[in-house]
Amino acid sequence: MDFTLKIWRQENANAKGRFETYKINDISPDCSFLEMLDILNESLVNKLSHPVCFDNDCREGICGMCGLYINGHPHGPDQAITTCQLHMRKFKDKETIVIEPWRAKPFPIIRDLVVDRTALDKIIQEGGYVSVTTGGIPDGNAIPIPKYKADQAMDSASCIGCGACVAACKNASAMLFVSAKVTQLSLLPQGKPESSIRVQKMVAKMDELGFGNCTNTYACEAECPKEIKCSNIAKMNREFLFAKVCTEENI
Amino acid sequence: MKLIQFASITKKMALAAFGLFLLLFLPVHLGINLCLLREDGGEWYRNASHFMGTNYIVKVFEIVLMASVLLHIIIAILLTIENFLARPVKYKVKSKTKTKTGSKYMIITGVVIACFLVLHFINFYFVKLDLIEGKYTAEIEKIDKHFQQKALKLQKGELNEKEQAQLMAQYQAISQVSQEKMDMSQKNLVNLSKEEVKLYCGEDFEEYEPDFYVMSQDLFSNRLYSIIYIFVFVILGLHLSHAIKSIAQTFGLNHNKYNYAIELVANSYAILIPIGFALIPIWIMYIK
Fold this sequence. Notes:
The structure holds two protein chains of two kinds.
Chain A: E1 3-9, E2 18-24, H1 33-46, E3 69-70, E4 73-74, E5 96-100, E6 109-111, E7 114-115, H2 118-127, H3 147-157, H4 164-168, H5 175-187, H6 195-208, H7 219-223, H8 231-246
Parallel strand pairs in A: 1-5
Antiparallel strand pairs in A: 1-2, 3-4, 3-5, 6-7
Helix pairs in contact in A: 2-6, 3-5, 5-6, 5-8, 6-8
Chain B: H1 8-34, H2 43-54, H3 56-85, H4 101-104, H5 106-128, E1 136-139, H6 140-156, H7 161-175, E2 188-192, H8 194-201, E3 209-210, H9 212-220, H10 223-241, H11 243-250, H12 259-287
């Protein structure tokens, strides 16, 4: 398969970016998107020019490192996958593919398609943890947790923090990410005692870092590679309201 | 970038709460407007306007309503600016993610509705506040009572020459009042300009009210206005399509048990309310 690639090139956060067009030929339909970029980079290196920088690590959809905005979709035009799980058979032959980095004020560009997602870590540092040592794995029957709650917590915990929700949101809001973390911890007995203070701190940090506000458009849900549901956002709103109105522990 | 020092969720909840109050007001307004469909020369409509203009509970809610409209607009603008600043460099390829149309264009549909609201205020509400002259109506019984009091004063010799002349002019005018200035029940003088109010009711008569029936009929007889009116309510429908579900989500009401019910209420509200409003100009243009 042959493709025309329009790739965003930018030397650093302050430099002015531009699109550069590359032609790439004889790509196998079974090639993954990142492998296709590897092939492009090899040819660029052979020509002694700088390869296209992009983030990646595990290449099996569990680490959350990769993330490209491909033809108007974070993680490309397929459902419930990360960029590394995207295959070239999802594109038409001779198609023009436009690749952009995640764009949001809290995600400054490091180089080309690599953005700095430390902002998400900063939100986690504000309260996305249990602050006492909870020990090793307890006996299965030591702490009773209803199955449905365990399932819900597991679903929320499947967020890999890739930032596709921020990239997809028209307001660059991180509500889906934050709500997944808040929900995951508050559903389980170990995280429950700190849930009121946690939600306030994490939301405050999210606002401070310059993420936008949620418009309930649900683009995040549509693009999330781990299919995190927007009911998490509702739960976070509920908890935030409860924390502000009913608890004495305010930040 | 935080423009006001409240958490994003707090601002959103405030926006939703004020929006909810506006949602509760719309069916009340629609109920009154639908009185226009009754071919009674505006009797029901004038009674409803009279109630809305004079009842004290309504007057309190009028203040709450105006505050809600203003705050809903102000918070929405602030949130939109914050959202705009959250992505300083835009994507070159527009997002192709499938989302509900209504949710994407809330600020645009909102601005259209706000513009119409200004027009609506100029046409009706400012007349009520006596900032703009419109058409007026007054109860004949009240005019009579006022006239008799004046006549009594005349007998006692308490009126000066100018007031006497005015009273005579009023007597002459009111005895020659044309049928067109009376409503069907012959209980009210209607379609009066400010000058006519002074002529028929006397200089110091204050119990006249804006004649919203005549004013609305005048507006709807203008085809361009009717088309703008229908267009605005299509836009309002789009705005409302994201209203109830979004309020529920913002207040944390999202559950498989009742999501279906919320969706049903939200969709029927967003369809029925604009249809109800748009029915009136269509009725006047094509059916009446």
